Amino acid sequence: MKYISLLVTCLFIVSCGNSKNASAMNKQTPLSGNYSIIAVGENALIDDNLNIMFNIEKNRVAGFSGCNQFSGSYSSTGSGLEFGPLASTRKMCRPEANKIEQHVLKALHETIRFSENNGVISFYNKEGAVLITMNKSETSNTEKMSDQKEYQVEYMAVSRGYYLMITYENKSISFQKDRTSKMQIKSLSETEITALNNKIADLNLQALETLEPPSKAHQYDGAAGATLKITKNGTNYRTPTFDAGNPPKAIEALVSELIAHTEKQ
Question: Whole-structure pTM over 0.70, yes or no?
Fold first, then answer.
């Protein structure tokens, strides 16, 4: 009888321990705000811009996966975590960035739960393998909203004999000088990024669509027709078509600097 009582006591203690562990898992602090991705699987990442932002009120998620911005929905109950279909921009990037992005998006697709230990958040698949490791970002929501990763700038000038496409996003300039050439990518210095960001910050985005072109030679093929589009937080702001080489005064400095970056070696 003593042995039976001892066995029952041991089973009770183990059962209580398991219940406490399960309870702890179910009481995970909900994911909310900004997080920096520091590893995918067992591979530490060099790109310190990888991030995920959770909007707990709307169950929406957005972030930067190495090349493009992504966004979508997610559901979380206790320690359970699943992501809905994620939409992303379609920027062309270096092969290394594309590879990182593929790993990040695949990991998010396979995630079924998460845990937090001393400020480190881990995502797991159904086999229990760690897919993504993150730290809580100290960047405030206000700073994130104004950060350059939150917008994309596109300048395009086209005529029958002329083509120029420029994209500024994620600390780099991508450009294509004719329809058949390969997209070129140029990384920018912190000084160059600051200069461009300041010019964008000076713009009234809501007023872009009301800018009056100073000339209209593009209407009779006297000049290439150009447009400037700025996408911020999912909203597009676009200018009317204007003559390439003669933009409205409000965007002249920004357009000139974008073009200058395609001419620097």
Answer: no
Instruction: Tell me which H or E stretch contains 37.
Output: strand 33-40
- CA distances to 51, 77, 112, 129 from 109, rounded to whole Å, are 16, 17, 9, 14
- Please state, in angstroms and rounded to a whole number, the distance separating the CA atoms of residues 156 and 110: 38
Q: Across-strand partners of 156?
A: 165, 227
Q: Which residues of 215-231 are buried (b: 16+ CB within 10 A; e: fewer)?
A: ebbbeeeebbbbbbebb
pLDDT digits (tens, 9 = 90+) for 113-141: 999 988 899 999 999 999 999 998 764 44
SS3 readout for 78-98: CCEEEEEEEEECCCCCCHHHH
What distance in Å separates the CA atoms of residue 265 and residue 254, rounded to the nearest whole number? 19
Task: Write the CA distances from 27 to 30, 115, 136, integer angstroms.
Answer: 9, 10, 18
Q: Is 161 left (phi over 0), alpha (psi -120 to 50) or beta?
A: alpha
Q: Rounded CA gap, 211 and 214, in Å?
A: 9
